[in-house]
Amino acid sequence: MRPERITQLQPGDSGGKGPVIYWMSRDQRTSDNWALIHAQNLALDRKRPLVVAFCLAPSFLGAAIRQYGFMLRGLKEVQKDLETRGIPFILLAGEPGREVPRLMEETKACHLVSDFDPLRVKRQWKEEVGREVSVPFTEVDAHNVVPCRLASEKQEYGAYTIRPKINRLLPEFLETFPRRRRHPFPWTKRVPRIDWDGLISTLRVDRRVPEVSWITPGERAAKRVMKGFIGRKLAGYSETSNDPNAGSQSDLSPYLHFGQISAQRVALEVVGSGPGGESVDDFLEELVVRRELADNFCFYNPSYDRFEGFPRWAAETLDHHRGDERPYIYSREDFDQARTHDRLWNAAQMEMVARGKMHGYMRMYWAKKILEWSPSPEEAIETAIALNDRYELDGRDPNGYTGIAWSIGGVHDRAWGERPIFGKVRYMSEKGARTKFDVEEYIKGNLGE
């Protein structure tokens, strides 16, 4: 593993006689996980046990049973896989700032390892934990192929500025993963039993957004979906990826969001699948460049989910058009229930409500229309994020925040011709959508018309 993936969040006295603890959060898998690999290497060097802990927060940015259920069913698989390697898995319940330090103290842990996450709440958790622990605290970027901090030291203007930086470093970081190893230093203390089914049934989260059955959570399922995409869809990806009727999407975004599969593993498999070509290049652009650009935006712009995070030109043009007459104004409940005049928008909303996943092209159209039909850009971004995070399996993700900020606030885009409401922010219309795919087929498929 390249050392640039590792960030020492704080030094400390490593004289504790207990285990190395990997605080798993964003990367919820046992294979192809640089954070877990690093934690095990530390434990092997010290001849100590390795313990993996996950802190289950009682609520998280509006996530419902749909997202909690998907995550916990994946973590159940993580626990079983770790047990076969002699590594205990401990599920903590409560706020990480309290529960992680408590576990560190109880176990006399000698080192704490976490994975990388650019979101404010995750970084705040780490700050809280850091104030309470005295042992070394290390963060490993196991999510990005090129580590976020290394790819750029500032917020990038768009894909055109970060792409050459990532492409220059990609050959060094697109390395093969070491084989998983059984841990030879056992943890002799009792590990609390986890009643996974009972836990899911007792969660106090919104159950009005049910779990979905079309996708199976977990690392094994993620690898099957990846192989299916490479074998059946990748060759035609360039021609069909913008057609929501074509079924050409990889369907990997929920797995990537919960870290049930590594983007680096997917990239390695795609690159090794054949001679390459335009479809491979286009898919890697989405998988690596665009995803890492989203992490860059959220890491370096603390207002990634607010109007204040928009570029100056976009904020100014939206300010200038605040008083423009809106042809329609809808409440958040109207949007939630797909009660707009636009059948195409309603179909996109219902696709998300029913499946927990909306096609990427439609996500852009969907968000831009929320701007057009909201009293202000501030209300528009709040509504888009609330709905996205309520229904999407991959909600609360840098990709989601960045995509909404692109659609509503011109982030990573340029100024276009001026028009009402949008100002110079890029506009999208149903007429434009009709040039790309069969709109009526999409509407029929999602509204049953």
Which descriptors apply to this entry?
6-stranded mixed beta sheet, 449 residues, alpha/beta, globular, 49% helix
Describe the 3D structure.
By secondary structure, the chain is an alpha/beta fold. The chain has 20 helices and 6 strands. It has a 6-stranded mixed sheet with strand order 1-6-5-2-3-4, with helices on both faces. Helix 2 links the parallel strand 3 (50-56) and strand 4. Helix 3 (96-107) runs parallel beside helix 4, helix 6 crosses helix 12 and helix 16 (360-372) packs antiparallel against helix 17 (377-391).
Give the arrangement of secondary structure elements:
Layout lengths: L5 E5 L9 E5 L9 H13 L3 E7 L8 H19 L5 E5 L2 H12 L3 E5 L4 H13 L4 E4 L7 H4 L7 H15 L22 H7 L16 H14 L4 H4 L12 H5 L5 H9 L6 H23 L11 H9 L11 H5 L6 H13 L4 H13 L4 H15 L6 H12 L20 H5 L4 H9 L2
Helix pairs in contact: 3-4, 6-12, 11-12, 12-18, 15-20, 16-17, 16-18, 17-18
